[in-house]
Specification:
two-stranded antiparallel ribbon; 8 helices; Rossmann fold; 7 strands; 5-stranded parallel sheet; 185 residues
Length: 185
């Protein structure tokens, strides 16, 4: 099966919601799943549940990802969903590790730095982790990673500062999905 066959076999699209930690990925992806019937995969929870890591980085207080284990696990999930005619909305703070063929839309959430700083402080992030994430947002690290890893036509940058932004992003995804289904049936 070629990569193109994989895409055209699917009845529903797959969406990746990505962005710096604290921009609202999980909440947005959950709402998209709720409004569209897509299956939500919180990649961070998947990593924890299936122990897809190889040790711990004490300085950043985070696990060291075992990409191969994660991708093998997700490949199976994507295939099962495709076989069942179900699309996926996944959320994760990184995007370059996923195969291009998995996703039809990459939604990159962006947040003002003051807002992001407050959200990460509320989460209890240490100073180093918080400042690295705020700097990553300023430098558009995840957006650039998405633009380098995927066809530019499928990468959408959207604001995620307020509840209204989130609702608008969810509605945009719902409309986009309706068009995708109409164009791919």
């Amino acid at each position: 099966m070629s990569e193109d066959d994989h895409h055209t076999d699917r009845k529903r699209p797959n969406i990746l919601v990505t962005g710096t930690p604290g921009v609202g990925k999980t909440v947005t992806a959950s709402l998209i799943a709720e409004k569209t019937g897509l299956k939500h995969i919180n990649v961070g929870e998947l990593i924890a549940k299936h122990k897809c890591y190889d040790g711990h980085d004490a300085e950043l207080d985070t696990h060291i990802l075992d990409e191969d284990k994660l991708l093998d696990l997700m490949e199976t999930m994507f295939q099962e969903c495709a076989d069942e005619g179900v699309g996926i909305v996944a959320d994760y703070h990184s995007c370059e590790l996923f195969p291009e063929r998995w996703f039809d839309l990459i939604l990159v959430l962006r947040t003002k730095t003051e807002e992001l700083f407050d959200r990460l402080t509320e989460r209890g992030y240490n100073e180093k982790k918080r400042s690295e994430n705020v700097e990553a947002e300023i430098m558009q690290v995840v957006l650039e990673e998405a633009r380098e890893s995927y066809d530019l036509e499928i990468v959408q940058e959207v604001q995620s500062n307020t509840v209204e932004d989130m609702e608008s992003n969810v509605e945009r995804c719902k409309v986009w999905m309706e068009h995708w289904i109409a164009n791919n049936s």
